[in-house]
Amino acid sequence: MDPVTPLEQALHAARARVLADLVAREVAEADVVSLVEDSVVQRRWWVEQWPDGVEFVAGLVAQDVQDALLERHGRWPLCPVCPTGDPHALDVEPELGPDPHWVCHKAGVKVASVGSLGRAPGGTASS
Q1: How many CB atoms lie within 10 A of CB 37?
Q2: Checking CA distances to 105, which of 38, 91, 96, 121 falls within 20 to 30 Å?
Q3: Mean pLDDT along residues 1-26
């Protein structure tokens, strides 16, 4: 059995983190999970071209899924911090960097790490 490469570890971790956020926000339908898989395939190629980008994969997969969901279903994930005003989505920061977080730019706060929306305000998982 071949050892798992750092690339495969990063891709599996990114998949798991984004799936955890989709489950936490109750949108992990089959078509949405397929969006995650599509992103992982694309990002595998991307990291093979730029190996130094392996630590950025989780944030990029989250952004890919967020963009694909916007086109198909609307904004995701909706901000759980701002109780009033127009519903708005969280953003991933840094856009290209390690340790990605979901951020509300209206309130100017980090809401949760990518993969931890279930522990954020408005999440469905208990802490």
Answers
A1: 11
A2: 38
A3: 92
